[in-house]
């Protein structure tokens, strides 16, 4: 196979593999995009459905809130129930008017007429006995109760109990509000909180609306009221009926209402299964929520307890033309109406979303297949065109340059072989010269070692002489010390001799005085005659003794003086000897210093010779390494020659690929 054909074949394979990988990556990216688009479509559909459910429930929620607000609206209550309250007060007022007429006609006194009217009004009842009429006065600042039919303990008392601070939503005293309404217009409505009578007694405070009217003749306020919880019950019934009829999505969508009862809630209203109304929702078929078989309505209650509203998914049979289908996925939105503790909800089947998703997936997959076909056809056309262009390019731009390169490589191989031979020859000569240099260096190293040993011996001798001089210096120093002590002793002896001379002189003086005394004693004895004869003898002996003592003292002084002179001479000799020892010591010290210098110089010379020997050894090692490197270089030159031969063979093979049936000239190595 020709070199050109091989290159085209390899390029074609690489191109096909590259385009195939790119195509697969592209298809994978498209497939991922399709999956992402489907997921996004599914999320959007689910969000749209959730938003729709929430909007529908909010509509029903607004209906509940509207009815609840209306049931608490004073104007609405007045319009709804006011006429009844007015009619009841008209009846009580007619009774009072009748008694007023009896007073005018003289039938009763005023007190009798009041008592009769009070008793008559006390007995009046309506709404199954829960409705009644009371009477209070117009007293200020706080009125007084005249008659209350259900709480007679209030009769005759000022109505200032804090429990009456419950009117008009601002905790105003209830009966003050009645008085103010009558002061302004003679009648009026007041809303407030009040216990409601039942068969079991009074309940907790309940919202109530009352109508009051002033009886000017007696300054009475007569009033009655209706409990607003009745209006709320009406509002609840109205809300149930209205939500029961509410539909959306072509009549398929509806709303239900259940309570917040536990553990199982109760159905308040279900428009399509009214049989559930008022019943506990504990049927097992309701255990279908959240994929864990949980009671559906319990799940509604839990969602509302946690977040006031939310979504619950479950399975439920779907109505169709042929009846109910198998369980289908369904999603409901529920919301808690807190004033009545109602859970309002609606739901929609979401199996349609899955159908829409599958249709979307089918359409996108079909488009992907079409794009893949077009893509692969385009790629195949591009690959064929690229192969054709590459074959032309290789013929014109690759083969010729390769022939030129092979020719240049042949020349390079020849030059490499020649250079390798030259390097090999030079390395041989260099190796011989290195051997000669190494031999000379080794001889020089032997001579240096002998010099080193002799210098080291001289340094040792100088060191010994230095030690002996140190010892001599020590002896001289000790002798100097002894001479100093001898000089000091001689000086002390001289001083003692001088003191002795002084003592002898004193003795001589004493002898002289004694002699004088003896002469005086002899003169006195002579004068005394025979009486002093004995004393004269004694005086004579004393004088003789004094003379001998004086002579002995003079002789001793002479001897001591001679000793002192000898001692002084000896001191001068010791001083001169001491000075001569000091001169010797100084000479020895200088000699010692010179020997120290000689010793130091010998040591430095030994160290220098040692360092020089180390340098010579390093040079010798370097020469040996150079010799080894030369050997390696010669080996590498031989390897380079072999590689040049191999390169020549490769060039021959390249020529055989690029030149068909042409003779190839081999390269001489």
Write a compact overview of the structure shown:
The chain has 669 residues and is an alpha+beta fold.
Separation, N- and C-terminal Cα atoms:
29 Å
Helix and strand sequence: HHHEEEEHEEEHEEEEHEEEHHH
SSE class: alpha+beta
Q: Assembly type of the shown chains?
A: single chain
Our estimate of the beta-strand percent is 5-15%
Helicity range: 55-70%
Number of helical segments with 4 or more residues: 9
Mind summarizing the main beta sheet?
A: 5 strands, antiparallel
Which residue ranges are poorly predicted, with pLDDT under 50 across at least 5 consecutive positions? 660-669
Strands in their spatial order, largest beta sheet = 2-1-7-6-5
Specify Rg, calculated over alpha carbons.
74 Å
**Molecular shape:** flat
- Overall strand count: 14
Q: Whole-number average pLDDT?
A: 81
Please characterize this protein's 3D structure:
Helix 1 (3-72) runs antiparallel to helix 7. The chain has helices spanning 3-72, 74-104, 110-122, 174-185, 228-245, 296-307, 351-397, 399-528, 533-658, and strands at 133-137, 145-147, 165-167, 172-173, 187-198, 201-215, 220-227, 256-259, 267-269, 287-289, 294-295, 309-320, 323-337, 342-349. The strands form four sheets. A five-stranded antiparallel β-sheet has the order 2-1-7-6-5. It has a five-stranded antiparallel β-sheet with strand order 9-8-14-13-12, sandwiched between helices. The chain is α+β, with helices and mostly antiparallel strands. A hairpin with a 4-residue loop joins strand 13 (323-337) and strand 14 (342-349). The chain contains nine helices and 14 strands. Helix content is 69%, strand content 14%. The longest helix has 130 residues, at 399-528. It starts with a helix and ends in an 11-residue tail after the last helix.
């Amino acid at each position: 196979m020709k070199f050109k054909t091989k290159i085209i074949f390899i390029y074609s394979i690489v191109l096909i593999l590259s385009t195939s990988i790119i195509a697969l990556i592209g298809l994978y990216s498209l497939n991922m995009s399709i999956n992402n688009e489907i997921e996004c479509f599914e999320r959007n559909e689910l969000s749209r459905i959730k938003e729709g459910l929430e909007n529908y429930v909010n509509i029903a929620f607004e209906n509940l809130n509207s009815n609840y607000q209306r049931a608490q609206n004073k104007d609405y209550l007045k319009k709804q129930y006011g006429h009844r309250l007015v009619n009841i007060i008209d009846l009580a007022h007619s009774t009072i008017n009748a008694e007023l007429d009896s007073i005018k006609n003289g039938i009763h006194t005023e007190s009798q007429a009041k008592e009769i009217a009070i008793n008559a009004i006390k007995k009046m009842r309506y709404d199954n006995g829960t409705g009644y009429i009371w009477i209070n006065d117009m007293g200020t600042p706080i009125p007084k109760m005249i008659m209350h039919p259900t709480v007679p303990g209030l009769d005759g008392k000022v109505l200032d109990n804090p429990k009456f601070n419950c009117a008009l939503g601002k905790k105003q005293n209830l009966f003050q509000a009645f008085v103010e309404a009558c002061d302004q217009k003679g009648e009026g409505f007041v809303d407030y909180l009040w216990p409601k009578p039942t068969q079991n007694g009074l309940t907790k405070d309940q919202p109530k609306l009352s109508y009051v009217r002033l009886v000017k003749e007696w300054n009475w306020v007569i009033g009655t009221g209706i409990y607003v919880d009745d209006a709320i019950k009406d509002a609840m019934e109205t809300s149930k009926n209205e939500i029961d009829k509410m539909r959306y999505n072509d009549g398929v969508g509806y709303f239900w209402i259940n309570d917040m009862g536990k553990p199982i809630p109760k159905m308040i209203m279900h428009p399509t299964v009214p049989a559930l109304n008022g019943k506990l929702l504990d049927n097992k078929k309701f255990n279908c929520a959240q994929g864990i078989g949980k009671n559906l309505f319990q799940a509604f209650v839990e969602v509302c307890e946690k977040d006031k509203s939310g979504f619950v998914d479950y399975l439920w049979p779907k109505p169709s033309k042929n009846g109910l289908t198998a369980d289908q996925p369904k999603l409901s939105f529920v919301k808690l109406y807190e004033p009545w503790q109602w859970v309002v909800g609606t739901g929609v089947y979401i199996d349609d979303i899955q159908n829409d998703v599958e249709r979307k997936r089918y359409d996108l997959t079909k488009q992907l297949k079409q794009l893949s076909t077009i893509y692969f056809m385009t790629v195949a056309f591009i690959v064929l065109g690229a192969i054709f262009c590459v074959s032309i390019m290789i013929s014109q731009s690759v083969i010729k340059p390769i022939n030129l390169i092979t020719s240049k490589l042949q020349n390079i191989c020849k030059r490499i072989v020649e250079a390798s031979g030259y390097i090999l020859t030079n390395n041989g000569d260099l190796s011989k010269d290195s051997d000669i240099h190494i031999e000379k260096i080794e001889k020089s190293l032997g001579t240096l070692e002998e010099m080193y040993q002799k210098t080291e011996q001289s340094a040792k001798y100088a060191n010994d002489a230095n030690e002996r001089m140190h010892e001599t210096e020590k002896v001289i120093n000790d002798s100097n010390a002894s001479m100093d002590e001898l000089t000091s002793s001689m000086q002390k002896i001289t001083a003692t001799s001088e003191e002795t001379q002084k003592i002898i002189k004193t003795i001589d003086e004493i002898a002289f005085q004694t002699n004088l005394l003896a002469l005086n004693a002899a003169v006195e004895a002579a004068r005394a005659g025979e009486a002093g004869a004995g004393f004269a003898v004694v005086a004579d002996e004393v004088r003789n003794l004094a003379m001998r003592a004086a002579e002995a003292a003079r002789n001793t002084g002479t001897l001591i003086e001679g000793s002192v002179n000898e001692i002084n001479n000896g001191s001068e000799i010791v001083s001169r000897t001491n000075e001569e020892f000091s001169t010797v010591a100084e000479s020895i010290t200088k000699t010692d210093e010179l020997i120290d210098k000689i010793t130091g110089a010998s040591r430095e010379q030994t160290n220098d010779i040692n360092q020089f020997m180390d340098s010579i050894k390093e040079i010798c090692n370097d020469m040996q390494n150079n010799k080894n490197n030369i050997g390696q270089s010669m080996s590498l030159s031989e390897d380079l020659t072999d590689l040049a031969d191999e390169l020549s063979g490769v060039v021959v093979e390249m020529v055989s690929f690029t030149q068909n049936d042409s003779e190839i000239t081999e390269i001489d190595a």
